[in-house]
Amino acid sequence: MKLLKIILPVYLILLSCNAQAQLPPVFEEAANTRLRTSELSKVYLTPQRIVWQTDTTGTYLQNTQQLLVKGNGQVAVNDQNLTRFISIDDHKPGILLDYGKEIHGGLKISMGIRPDKTPLKLRVRFGESVGEAMSDIGGEQNATNEHSLRDFIVEVPWLGSIEVGETGFRFVRLDVVEGDQNAPIKSIEAAFVYRDIPYLGSFNSSDPRLNEIWKVGAYTVHLNMQSYLWDGIKRDRLVWVGDMHPEVMTINTVFGPNEVVPKSLDLARDQHPLPQWMNTISSYSMWWILIHKNWYDYHGDLAYLKEQETYMINLLDQLSTFIDENNAEKLNGGRFLDWPTSVQPKAIHAGLQAMMVMTFEAGSEIMEIYDKPDLAKKYTNVARRLKKHIPEGNTSKQAAALMALADLADAKKTNTEILKKDGVQRMSTFYGYYILEAMAKAEDYDGALDVIRTYWGGMLDLGATTFWEDFDILDVTNSSRIDELTPADENDIHGDFGEFCYIGFRHSLAHGWASGPTPWLTQYVLGIHVMDGGNTVKIEPHLGDLEFAEGTFPTKFGILRVKHTATPDGIITDLEAPDGLKIIE
Fold it and tell me: The Alpha-L-rhamnosidase six-hairpin glycosidase domain covers which part of the protein (predicted)?
């Protein structure tokens, strides 16, 4: 691998509309050097703080603050002023480091020279939270080594370095395994692996909380843009097609077209030849169609859309066989919307019925793009048939939102009676995006902004730097932050909660499906609605209680810049559009 001088900061979210903001600390060191492998890059980061250590007397841990000083990453025979790990049988020292922000990658540990040339055995524990890094495998809090190893023993070579780990983390605990050790440690650096792409979209407003939420959503998806588009960097590290939909909407908004999306969509298609459902879940095959429609809407890549023609038509025809004589869906395979609704059959049916409607409407529009009017008409008729069946008995916000989006239920009535009931209780980070979309359809933009501030902002209040696989607002009571040791009389927000597949520390704290506020704020607050295969943008802002909102947006012609200012006489809009882009105001 060749050492390269960095050209662009990895976190270019701050264009001309937001020149006062600062580059996050986790990226500042990327301004010097990086290692590039294929489409991914690597930088080495020093810890930002020491959260905890077994000894503060200087007996077993010496000069630990040196670990926070940026070095050159190269051991030498005459290194001075190193950190020392000193162990006896009765005290094997340990230390907990904080790298300041959730990252994806591993750890590089370097040891200096000492008389004993044997390797130093260290136990390494990665954690997305302090609690996870301090935990043991198993137990009630359910720490695991599944999908990616986060708890293991390594040997650090004499006068050398070792690089280990590939997971999502912010915190690392290291413990000396054996007694009678005196080890000079030069550095313990995080090896941060990321896709080196600029942040072309941006959002800035008079509300710093909304601004931070937009950025955190963008960063969460960025971390998951690895060799493929994953759902989580700790787990599951897989291409889950349904999870991809909010992620792709965020990529459209922040990065513009990126090869990781078609690469991942094609992988799902090729891994699941018909009649298989993608990821064994029927709704995920429908999300595949809906993602393709959104991808074309934003980027207008007809050649890529046409590559899907045979599979697309066959999938739509297969879906059309799963409708009964009462026009109700009867899909087989995994019947799944999201985890909180997975035990509610009425919610699942209502959501799947709505998704069938949206899928066949999207399919009809795709057939128009393919210039296949007979198929367009056929799939429109299927959608109309499905609309004759209105599911009853659903009370979940997730399925209700889909029904409103599919015109199976009145959006304003749904918003009042279901979506706004009990505030942000019984939401999910995945389907939170569709709840926001349904609230926008009900023209409740102020209510949606409150949901974003309360629900996604609630994760920030607990120390989140990325958005989580799931979040229950009721768990906040008497819970500590993820970046602190949990007091004995408080709950660990990470380890003490969770259901289904995300019990305790198995819970992913960097899940791309949770990024919904990022595309939503751009579309409905900045008012950027993409049309006509990316050739046209309709500007329709909704500032709510904001004094101003401004931002950038990547189009197929270049960067669109907008700024909206609230005045007593209405909103004043300033635009800077690239040549070729049609603007409708």
Answer: 200-475
Instruction: Identify the bridge partners of residue 575 per DSSP, sorted by sequence position.
Output: 562
Pair type for strands 479-480 and 491-492: parallel
Q: State pLDDT tens for residues 272-317.
A: 999 999 999 999 999 999 999 999 999 999 999 999 999 999 999 9
Sign of CA pseudo-dihedral 521, 501, 337, 289: positive
CB-based burial of residue 320 (10 Å sphere; 0-12 exposed, 13-18 middle, 19+ buried)? middle
The helices-and-strands tally (H runs, E runs) of the chain is 16, 20
The whole-chain average pLDDT of the chain stands at 94
Where in the chain are the domains? 3-195, 199-255+453-465+473-484+496-585
pTM (2 d.p.): 0.93
Given this model, what pLDDT does residue 9 score? 40
Eight-state DSSP code of residue 466: S
370: Cβ contacts below 8 Å, ≥ 6 apart: 305, 306, 309
Domain 199-255+453-465+473-484+496-585 has CATH 2.60.420.10: yes
CA distance 193 to 195: 7
Contact 315, 274 (CB under 8 A): yes
Residues 6 or more apart in contact with residue 200 via CB below 8 angstroms: 12, 254, 255, 256, 552, 553, 554, 559
pLDDT at 39: 81
Q: How many CB atoms lie within 10 A of CB 195?
A: 20
Which pair of structure tokens corresponds to residue 29? 């060191």
Q: How far apart are CA 479 and CA 487, in angstroms?
A: 9
Q: Where are the alpha helices (DSSP H) in 233-308?
A: 241-254, 260-271, 282-299, 302-307
Largest Cα–Cα distance of the chain, in whole Å?
82
Q: Would you say 518 and 211 are in contact if contact means Cβ atoms under 8 Å apart?
A: no
Spatial contact of 323 and 329, defined as CB atoms under 8 Å apart: yes
Q: What pLDDT, in 10s, does the model give residues 15-43?
A: 333 434 444 545 544 544 444 445 899 99
Cα–Cα dist 455/364, whole Å: 35
Cis peptide before 487 (omega within 30 of 0): no
> Which residues, other chains included, contact 412 with Cβ-Cβ below 8 Å and sequence gap of 6+?
442, 443, 444
Pair 19, 204: CB distance under 8 Å: no
Q: Are 530 and 584 in contact (CB under 8 A)?
A: no
Residue type, 429: T
| CB-based burial, 393-421: b 16+ in 10 Å, e otherwise | ebebbbbbbbbbbbebbebeebbeebbbe
Which of the four CATH numbers 3.40.1010.20, 3.40.50.720, 1.10.260.40, 2.60.120.260 does domain 3-195 have? 2.60.120.260
C-alpha to C-alpha distance for 520 and 250, rounded to whole angstroms:
9
Banded model confidence at residue 4, pLDDT cuts 50, 70, 90: very low
Q: Checking phi first, is residue 27 left (phi over 0); if not, alpha (psi -120 to 50) or beta?
A: alpha
So what's the pLDDT on residue 273? 98
* Residue of higher predicted confidence among 525 and 26: 525
